[in-house]
Amino acid sequence: MMLPRRQDYGKRRSDGVRSGSVINFRSAGSPGSVRRSSALLPSVLTFLVIVASGGLLLMIEKGMLNSVETPSPRGSARRLELIGETRKYGADGADVDSQILQEIRNRTIRTMCSQKNMPHSVWSLSPLQRKTVLQHILVNDEYRFLYCYVPKVACSNWKRVLKVLSGALESVDVNIKMDHRSDLKFLSSLKPEEIRYRLKHYFKFMFVREPMERLLSAYRNKFGEIESYQKKYGAEIVKRYRKGRAKDASVTGDDVTFGEFVRYLLDEDVERMNEHWMPIYNLCQPCAVSYNFIGSYEQLGRDSEYVLQRIGAPPFVHFPERQTWYKPVTTQTLHYYLCTLPQKLLRELLPKYILDFSLFAYPLPNTTTEHCRH
């Protein structure tokens, strides 16, 4: 098959995106969609009350959140056709609900990040904060984009895509163990002026996930399957938080409980955490970096397809299918872990991740006695 000429893709890179703002890629809906939006408004406002924190709710009530234009995506007919397929939801209004959620997230980020105490560029961050974010932003100069990877939010698959785009990997479906460092270009490897240019002119995106679900995914994967994590972190956690094991040389760290893991997190400085459980806010600094698009793990397929279309990726490049061995965190599983966790620990844990909840429009977990009874 003859591939389209590379320069054809470059024409799309500047289409339909305003530099330095988080955008909603959804185009204007039909009159019917508007009617469904109105019907959904009460539940959405309730949701907004849940996720809003501190003075943000007051700003919303005073009308300080301005409307935002929602440019429609442009690009190849092939890409738009695929995106159209991912929009074919039922008549229950789920697609409209997704649009509203995206709009809430966009406005919340802009409003909260406009506050004086929030960083407004990577250069206003502390040296440690700046080092963290620059080490998590991957660069592709050919397609002119920056991707901030977040562990446990499909970052391995996105790294596969980047390697295919750079020519280091033949296909995203190649069955090889992912090397998370080789054949990848990190923003931290560039000079300050090169960093400034790319932050200003490149398309910037990241993906987020419900904070507690991401945390549980990291716990189950690292302490249930990865021996190096069991030895490095697990053994120390057991010795520190399990009675009578402080000086036990036989501790292997392969039986860390979720409660012990949470106690460990409570004693950790968020800016020095391991990247797999560091808050998304600290990893990608969405106030210091003006991301053009923030996708959701919950809508991974659709949002990934949009990004591929937006950067002008060749039609043969697709987002990888989920691996057959992957064990997703189900709603029931998360419900079980959070409800069996001492509620005092959960109340102390949530503030460490409150910016992930509020900025990315995720409701706080419901662990009331009545809810947990079911």
From TrEMBL:
GO terms for biological process: carbohydrate biosynthetic process; dermatan sulfate proteoglycan metabolic process. Its EC number is 2.8.2.-. It comes from the Eukaryota. It holds the Pfam family Sulfotransfer_2. InterPro entries: Carb_sulfotrans_8-10, Sulfotransferase. One of its GO terms (cellular component) is Golgi membrane. It is found in: Golgi apparatus membrane. GO terms for molecular function: sulfotransferase activity. The chain crosses the membrane at residues 39-60. Keywords: Carbohydrate metabolism, Glycoprotein, Golgi apparatus, Membrane, Signal-anchor, Transferase, Transmembrane, Transmembrane helix. It is a single-pass type II membrane protein. Its main location: Golgi. Belongs to the sulfotransferase 2 family. This is Carbohydrate sulfotransferase.
